From TrEMBL:
Key words, A-Z: Hydrolase, Protease, Serine protease
Keyword Nucleus: no
Catalyzed reactions: Hydrolysis of Pro-|-Xaa >> Ala-|-Xaa in oligopeptides
EC number(s) reported in the record: 3.4.21.26
All residue ranges annotated as the Peptidase S9A N-terminal domain in the record: 26-430
One Pfam family in the UniProt entry: Peptidase_S9_N
Species, as recorded: Duganella dendranthematis
Family to which this protein belongs: Belongs to the peptidase S9A family.
Chain ranges of the Peptidase S9 prolyl oligopeptidase catalytic domain: 487-702
Name of the protein this chain belongs to: prolyl oligopeptidase
Length: 713
């Protein structure tokens, strides 16, 4: 059969019902690039933008940023918004403390520091000592602390850093008493845990082979390996512990059991919500790595052990999770013992503290924490302040205390100390933010998606919201990779609420809010369910007069950027503005860059004929059509994003600018420098990005710029 040629255009031109801004977009030339997918030929005229290092791509980036900043700088109220955001952001905040080697550790940001600072103390009553200040690692704050692990004896801190938002990490080691680094330096680490031997003589970590310097931010990442680094030696002497050259797509994470006896190796395959588990007996010299769970049939999270008996949270035969014990000496499934059964709530995680199991659940997308004894008897729940999100609860088996954080849409992350013997929580750190939480309200609504599925969403607004369809609204979603969206505090969203905006967060399929079946219902050939859920949320908001299409905007990042791109191309009439952030927008080529291949577990791959057809139907890049009235759109990305390479955003922006109907709303792209996918972004860059985002929406949704100024009065 003759191949058909498809180009991202073809819709009949139409007249837009919005006033154009008279923008002249930078000239973006096209090339005659075509690819044959299972007999269908797809044109890719902006393929050249995939080369981020070429001079012409760099010139294009400069031209696009100049246009975007010229447009944004003319929006009234930006100075007042930045002033208010800076004031809101300037509050003291803490991480959840943890204890190791007789010391407490936590991070603190005094308000406007670009990066949080790590502190340590012997007791909670002691004056804490500054241990590591990432702000000293780069003048502009673009080197972030990406991970840390304290040796069990409390002598050393292994810490990883990431520069300019890249996923590439370097590990260094600091002597905790002296506060100075020793000579150890490990490079080319990515997607890795750091696990110390019990005697503090060294640690396990995962790395890739050294990449080519010029293309390290784009080249595909395969063949991760697990190594052991002995303290005081060069990386070249590190010992290879485990690799699988027969499976280039396997990744490895390691942890050492609390008793120091076993190395537990988690083997993942991309982002699939399944894994394999291996272990090594560290008490025996030259012990081999042994396979324990090798069927790749479910998710298995190690919780703790009683010698050779391991506890796991698993979704095997329990889509919402349960806890089982497995005796490594007789590991057959028939010998497993169920400790905590599956319930109607979704089991997120479990920890072993005070010889009890602390189990974190999601109940309709908010936290529920329950305590069990080691036989699985439910003892009591941890009393939480409200319908929000709790996290933490780590510790040692013999500890009688643990710490956790609690947050909601209007509650800044507050740290609590939990006494397990008394079943009592006491507030440990409470931040003070310059706003009145009583002025806002949160409600949860359930709407019906296209196929009849009930889907929840949270609606946050000022109290007394008038349901007349006039409220500027920002609808946010994600819907992928088993990731759950739960209530959390955001200074950025608070500013939006103060401006009179409504913030809506939808808990779409593809996430993990209701367990693995909820996740699976939004993957591969069923991915359209996610977009239908998001569109269903928007239609509910309009039908119930929370907002109207002229006042409705959508946003999301990464997989959420895909969500926004799909929604705006499928229903451009439903939204006034769209902000796809660091989005996966070219669904035919995403797997060809860095770690993109790992996402095929959720998306499928264009290499598969059936999955190609499904991908082509919703791929945002390939569903833009010439002459269509698209919402006002600001695409955001960053030059060091090696998770979702900026080529996605570049090609989508170029195509959308070419296809937008004459007189249509602006299509802009904002390209951050010395930043990546989002993690570790300095406070200054975060504030600037939010100012641009809300500033863009004030114009797109025809909000009064005066509201911005009034919010700070």
């Amino acid at each position: 059969m003759a191949a058909a040629v498809l180009v991202a255009q073809g819709a009949m031109a139409q007249t837009c019902n919005v006033a154009g801004d008279g923008l002249t977009y930078p000239v973006t030339h096209t090339v005659d690039q075509q690819d044959n997918y299972h007999g269908t030929v797809i044109a890719d005229p902006y393929r050249w933008l995939e080369d981020a290092n070429s001079a012409e791509t760099k010139d294009w980036v400069v031209a696009q940023n100049q246009l975007t900043q010229s447009y944004l700088s003319q929006i009234p109220g930006r100075d007042a918004l930045k002033e208010r955001l800076t004031k809101l952001w300037n509050f003291e905040r803490f991480s959840v403390p943890f204890k190791e080697g007789g010391r407490y550790f936590y991070s603190r940001n005094d308000g406007l520091q670009n990066q949080a600072v790590l502190y340590t103390a012997r007791t909670l009553a002691d004056v804490p000592r500054l241990l590591l200040d990432p702000n000293t690692l780069a003048a502009d704050g673009t080197v972030a602390l990406a991970g840390l692990a304290v040796s069990p004896d409390g002598k050393y801190l292994a810490y990883s850093t990431a520069a300019s938002g890249s996923d590439w990490n370097e590990i260094k080691v600091r002597d905790i008493d002296s506060g100075k680094d020793v000579e150890d330096h490990v490079k080319w680490v990515k997607f890795s845990r750091t696990a110390w031997l019990h005697d503090g003589s060294g640690f396990f970590y995962s790395r890739y082979d050294e990449p080519k310097e010029a293309t390290k931010l784009a080249d595909v990442n395969y063949f991760q390996k697990l190594y052991f680094h002995k303290l005081g030696t060069q990386q070249s002497a590190d010992v290879l512990v485990y690799e699988r050259p027969d499976h280039k797509d396997w990744g490895f994470g390691a942890e050492v059991t609390e008793d120091g006896r076993f190395l537990v190796i988690n083997a993942s395959q991309g982002t699939e919500n399944k894994n394999r588990v291996f272990y090594k007996d560290l008490s025996k010299k030259d012990a081999k790595v042994v396979g324990l769970l090798e069927d790749f049939d479910a998710a298995y999270d190690f919780v703790g052990n009683d010698g050779p008996v391991f506890l796991f949270r698993t979704e095997r035969n329990a889509p919402r999770g349960r806890i089982v014990s497995i005796d490594t000496r007789k590991p057959g499934v028939l010998n497993w013992k169920q400790i905590v059964p599956e319930s109607s709530n979704t089991m997120v995680s479990a920890s072993l503290v005070n010889n009890q199991l602390l189990v974190d659940y999601l109940s309709d997308a908010h936290s529920l924490v329950r305590v069990y004894d080691l036989k699985g008897k439910a003892l009591h729940d941890v009393e939480l302040p409200g319908l929000g999100t709790a996290g933490g609860f780590s510790g040692k088996r013999g500890d009688t205390e643990t710490f956790y954080s609690y947050t909601s849409f209007t509650t800044p992350s507050t740290i609590y100390r939990y006494d397990l013997k008394a079943n009592k929580s006491s507030m440990y750190r409470q931040p003070k933010v310059d706003f009145d939480p009583s002025a806002f309200e949160t409600r949860q609504e359930f709407f019906t998606s296209r196929d009849g599925t009930k889907v929840p969403m949270f609606i946050v607004s000022k109290k007394g919201l008038k349901l007349d369809g006039s409220n500027p609204t920002y609808l946010y979603g994600y819907g992928g990779f088993n990731i759950s969206l739960t209530p959390s505090f955001s200074v950025a969203n608070l500013a939006w609420l103060e401006m009179g905006g409504v913030y809506v967060m939808a808990n779409l399929r593809g996430g993990g809010e209701y367990g693995e079946s909820w996740h699976a219902a939004g993957t591969k050939l069923q991915k359209q369910n996610v977009f239908d859920d998001f569109i269903g949320a928007a239609e509910w908001l309009v039908a119930h007069k929370v907002t109207s299409p002229a006042k409705l905007s959508i946003g999301g990042g990464s997989n959420g950027g895909l969500l926004v791109g799909a929604a705006m191309t499928q229903r451009p009439d439903l939204f006034a503005a769209a902000i796809p952030q660091v989005g996966v927008l070219d669904m035919l080529r995403f797997h060809k860059f860095t770690i993109g291949w790992a996402w095929t577990s959720d998306y499928g791959s264009s290499d598969n004929a059936d999955e190609f057809k499904a991908l082509l139907k919703y791929s945002p890049l390939h569903n833009l059509k010439k002459g269509t009235c698209y919402p006002a759109t600001m695409i955001t990305t960053a030059d060091h994003d090696d998770r979702v390479v900026p080529a996605h955003s570049f090609k989508f922006a170029a195509t959308a600018q070419a296809d937008q109907a004459a007189g249509g709303a602006p299509i802009l792209i904002r390209i951050e420098s010395k930043a990546g996918h989002g993690a570790g972004k300095p406070t200054t860059k975060q504030i600037d990005e939010v100012v641009d985002r809300w500033g863009f929406l004030t114009r797109a949704l025809h909000m009064d710029g005066g509201e911005v100024k009034a919010a700070g009065q």
